[in-house]
């Protein structure tokens, strides 16, 4: 009988040891599953990928962005690392991606890197406390136009004024398609560019001359992102204006642009026109007031706004 009891006790001890081993193994498995990349994949609806080769165009954009940040911001804002985390496998995952990118605590930015004092980076709900939902909706709207099934994602690590934070960047073979920080910041010369044209060589008939004023916004890597301009033209004979035209244009990639113009004085000794122009990045929106004939911006975002009049004389 004592022998049987010893056997039972021994079996219970073995069972206890096995339970402890199984418990530890289970804990270890759980711990591995919770590593940072897996959490990101889960939050954004991504699946893991084995291909860690980044397209050359994306590498070029990252390198150019680093150079421009160093040139204009002098170390205030830097990209210090990147890590591929997965890809968007299907439309259901896209919905998760859009939700993650537009949540109230997501990191956003606005400002012109060529004017460092205008650059602001922070959580959406802190930068736009009274219109957080509006900002979130705009982010989701624009992201849904840019990020597609099959796009891959990397985690960018940034340093801003000594503090480190991360954003999730989406890209295809053609280049970067979305990053909350990159789509919010812009690189632009606040000074406009002007162009004068005429048909001075015309020996007979009506002569004309024009004045064009343009503003440009670029991506952080340097390529053109947005343009607004107006151009006024006067047609004249012997110094007298017989007709005046004014045209306008506005375009913005991932953002919005508005342009309006009208002739105020058509004939006489000169021509005169009025213009209202604007462009802005997401989490900001533009509005044209026809009564005041001006464009204004609401929300927070990088923007160029120009409202005014221009007189042009024959020459």
From TrEMBL:
It comes from the Bacteria. Residues 1-26 form the signal peptide. The keyword Signal applies. PROSITE patterns: PROKAR_LIPOPROTEIN. Keywords: Signal. This is DUF4848 domain-containing protein. It comes from Aquimarina amphilecti.
